Structure formats: structure tokens, C-alpha cells
């Protein structure tokens, strides 16, 4: 049976037909789609900022992520629409909200692609440290665009195989790290920190640093909104909450165990945003094959995720054009392979921006883009919860859960302000939101004029 992959564009096919997915299949798809470079490399920024307390950040982020999934799945099951959460924002607050939500999501996807592109370039420098970051970024961007243009028929199947590759890479680390800690593998650092047992060791940089690390834990769960959209393809759509629960429980267990092992094996001071924390953790052991195999697995799977994001963002702009929230030009497709050339062209400009940034800011680029992408993701998720509060009939329990979820999202965004090294990412996200806000305001005036003339 063919299963949808993470490259599937947002929206539904229209109507309320039931799909053919079992709840556990959706859980597995969710696990594969969510694990990405945000976890393999982005988590290193969080560890560097806060130390061992990053584990608690991941637990809190899993709770916030579940709240978003839970309410999006409910709205999708009750009223599946092509615009999905952008449609629900418009339904809840008016056309301005749907327009702003759509463009905010597009912007966040562009930033996420930029983050993935930079991550792949950083990981590639593991073998070629003297090659400038922007050259790798350009190579991966061209390859990704080439795959999208070709429209490879088997890409979805490859995507699912690579999702298994990502999960296998984490499990490989867990097994090897466990064996190393048990003394079965020779080598290791002289002063192994071990599992922290006191408050001072868990929060070595203080509570403010812990607060700032939340955004990177949330970022590692990015993509969960896409899985919420797939809930309409379940055989029994009532199973959507159960599917989300299992998915997030498994993800949290995998994330937390691997994080605990990493911070137990090497001091958090040794972690760098230029290398996966899992490679750093096993660097001192006599496992010459591991860094190369692990790095190759992450790059392969990360490239598939970036290309899937390019597919998604290209189709998203077509959807926005169909709903008249983007110029009609972006709706047009070439007869050859039904390629939306204008939409792909705009996404390509976004990738080009990342390449130029890699040329100008090679040192801090990954932190800035990843931080900004994570914040825009939180804005998207906040809109999902706020929309559900107006659309769904909520009892006291649901209202309490939604408020709790919003508070976690607000905490993740505001924590960035207190960390100087990543604060620029916050300002970048504010700039993008301001631009979207100004354009949205202008469009509301245009819509009012159109109404007067009808």
C-alpha cells in the first residue's frame, strides 16, 4: 500500500472521504517526517546554551507539540479543507488571518529550507573543512531544484526509506553510546561528566539559559503540522489523537534517551554548532567508522527533507494563488511535468538568499536562520491553537490544555531575547512578520475596495 510521505503538500483532496491509513502507520510516518537536521545538528545550539537541562526542554517541547497536533487533527477531521490551518485561521478570525497565516507559513518554510541547507553544508565540511560554506550550499540547492524539476516518480518511496535511515541513525548512536558507557568500547574522554544528579549540574548556565534553549527543542519537532494534515487519511479519523500520542511518545523517548547519553559522555562545553552532538559524544572512542557513517546518514536524510520542503513550499504557493492570496501568476503550471515554474522560481530565490548569507555570515548563519525559523514555526503553531479555540467546541479541560500549549509557545519565543548569541534570529523573525503584517494591512484595504465595487 502506498503511504503519503512528508513531501506531500499541505491540504486535502476536498471532501471528507476516509483514507486507508491505520493509526499506527500515521504514527510511523510522523516519526520519520519529524526527525531531521533540526535534531541532528540544531540540538547542539541548545546544548551549548543550557547544558544538560536541554533534556527537560525536549520533554516540555513534546507536550507543547502534542497540543498543536491534537487541535489541528480535530479541526481537520471535522472540516478537511485544502488550505488547512490557513483556512481555519481565516474561518476563525477573517480573511486577513488566513492570508497572513499562509504567507507566514511560506516564509517559515523558506527559512527552514535555509536552515537545512546550511546544516547540510556544515556537516559536509566534516570531510572538507577548507571548502567555503556557500559552495556546499550552492551545490545542495542546485541538486534539490534539479530533483523537483525532474519530478521523480519514485521520490515518495525514497522519502520513506530515508525516514527509516534517520531513525536507524539515532538507534545506532543509542546502541553504540550504551556500549561505550558500559565499557565495551575502548577509549573515551578522561573526564566523563556522567548523568547529572544535582540542580547545579542540570542547570549549569542558570534558568534563563534553559529558557532560551526551548526554541531548539521545539524546532526538533518541526513538521508536526504536516502530520496533522494527514490525519484525514486515516481509516478511522477518531484515531487521530491516539496516533499523535503514540508518535510523540516514541519521538520523546528516542530524543530524551539519545540526549541523556550524549550529555553523559562529553561535557556540554565541547559541543559545537558545527558538528552533531552525537558525533562529538563518540569522537574519543575507537570507532573510526561511526562519524563517517553517521554523518553520511544525516546528510542523505537531510537532503531528502530539504527537497521535500521545496516540493511542499512550491505547492503551497500554488494553493495560495488558487485562493487569491497570492498573484495568479503562481498558479500557472508548465505543460511539461505540470511544473509551477513561477512558484519554484520564488522558492529558488529564497534558497539563493541562504547561499548569499552563507557567503557573508559563515560563522553565525546557522544559529540565526535556525532561530528565526523556529520562531516563525511557533507563530504558525500559535495560530493553530488560537483558531481551534474559536472553531471547536471546547470543554474546560480542552481550554486548559490550549492555554497551557500557548504558554509553552510564548516561553519558547520570548526565551530567545535573553541569549545574545541567538538574539539576531529573533529580530529577523520580527522583521519578516512585520513585512507580512504590512502587506496584509494593504490587502485588507484592497479587499474592501473590491467589495464596494461588487
Automatic annotation (TrEMBL):
Residues 26-451 form the Amino acid permease/ SLC12A domain. Keywords: Amino-acid transport, Membrane, Transmembrane, Transmembrane helix, Transport. It comes from the Bacteria. The chain crosses the membrane at residues 22-42, 54-73, 131-151, 163-185, 214-234, 246-268, 293-318, 339-362, 368-389, 401-418, 424-447. It is a multi-pass membrane protein. It is found in: Cell membrane. The keyword Transport applies. InterPro entries: AA-permease/SLC12A_dom (IPR004841), MFS_trans_sf (IPR036259). Its main location: membrane. This is Amino acid permease. The lineage of its organism: Bacteria, Bacillati, Bacillota, Bacilli, Bacillales.
Amino acid at each position: 500500500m502506498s503511504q503519503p510521505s512528508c513531501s506531500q503538500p499541505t491540504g486535502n483532496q476536498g471532501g471528507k472521504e476516509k483514507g486507508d491509513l491505520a493509526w499506527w502507520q500515521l504514527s510511523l510516518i510522523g516519526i520519520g517526517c519529524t526527525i531531521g537536521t533540526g535534531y541532528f545538528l540544531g540540538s547542539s545550539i541548545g546544548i551549548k546554551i543550557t547544558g544538560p537541562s536541554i533534556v527537560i526542554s525536549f520533554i516540555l517541547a513534546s507536550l507543547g507539540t502534542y497540543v498543536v497536533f491534537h487541535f489541528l487533527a480535530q479541526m481537520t477531521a471535522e472540516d478537511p479543507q485544502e488550505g488547512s490551518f490557513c483556512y481555519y485561521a481565516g474561518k476563525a478570525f477573517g480573511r486577513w488571518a488566513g492570508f497572513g497565516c499562509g504567507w507566514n507559513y511560506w516564509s517559515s518554510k523558506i527559512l527552514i529550507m535555509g536552515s537545512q541547507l546550511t546544516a547540510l553544508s556544515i556537516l559536509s565540511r566534516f570531510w572538507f573543512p577548507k571548502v567555503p560554506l556557500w559552495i556546499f550550499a550552492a551545490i545542495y540547492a542546485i541538486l534539490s531544484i534539479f530533483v523537483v524539476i525532474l519530478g521523480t516518480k519514485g521520490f515518495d518511496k525514497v522519502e520513506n526509506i530515508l525516514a527509516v535511515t534517520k531513525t536507524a541513525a539515532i538507534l545506532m548512536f543509542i546502541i553504540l553510546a550504551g556500549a561505550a558507557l558500559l565499557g565495551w568500547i575502548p577509549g573515551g574522554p578522561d573526564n566523563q561528566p556522567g548523568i547529572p544528579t544535582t540542580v547545579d549540574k542540570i542547570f549549569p548556565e542558570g534558568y534563563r539559559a534553559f529558557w532560551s534553549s526551548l526554541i531548539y527543542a521545539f524546532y526538533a519537532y518541526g513538521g508536526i503540522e504536516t502530520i496533522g494534515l494527514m490525519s484525514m487519511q486515516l481509516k478511522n479519523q477518531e484515531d487521530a489523537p491516539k496516533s499523535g500520542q503514540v508518535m510523540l511518545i516514541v519521538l520523546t523517548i528516542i530524543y530524551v534517551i539519545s540526549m541523556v547519553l550524549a550529555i553523559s559522555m562529553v561535557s556540554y562545553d565541547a559541543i559545537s554548532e558545527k558538528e552533531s552532538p552525537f558525533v562529538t559524544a563518540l569522537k574519543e572512542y575507537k570507532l573510526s567508522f561511526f562519524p563517517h557513517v553517521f554523518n553520511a546518514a544525516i546528510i542523505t536524510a537531510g537532503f531528502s527533507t530539504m527537497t521535500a520542503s521545496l516540493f511542499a513550499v512550491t505547492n503551497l504557493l500554488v494553493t495560495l494563488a488558487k485562493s487569491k492570496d497570492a498573484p495568479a501568476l503562481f498558479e500557472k503550471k508548465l505543460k511539461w511535468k505540470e511544473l509551477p515554474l513561477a512558484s519554484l522560481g520564488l522558492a529558488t530565490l529564497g534558497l539563493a538568499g541562504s547561499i548569499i548569507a552563507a557567503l557573508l555570515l559563515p560563522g553565525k548563519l546557522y544559529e540565526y536562520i535556525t532561530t528565526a525559523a523556529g520562531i516563525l514555526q511557533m507563530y504558525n503553531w500559535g495560530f493553530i491553537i488560537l483558531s481551534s479555540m474559536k472553531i471547536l467546541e471546547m470543554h474546560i479541560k480542552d481550554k486548559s490544555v490550549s492555554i497551557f500549549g500557548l504558554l509553552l509557545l510564548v516561553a519558547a519565543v520570548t526565551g530567545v531575547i535573553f541569549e545574545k548569541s541567538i538574539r539576531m534570529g529573533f529580530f529577523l523573525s520580527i522583521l519578516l512578520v512585520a513585512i507580512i503584517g504590512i502587506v496584509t494591512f494593504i490587502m485588507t484595504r484592497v479587499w474592501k475596495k473590491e467589495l464596494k465595487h461588487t
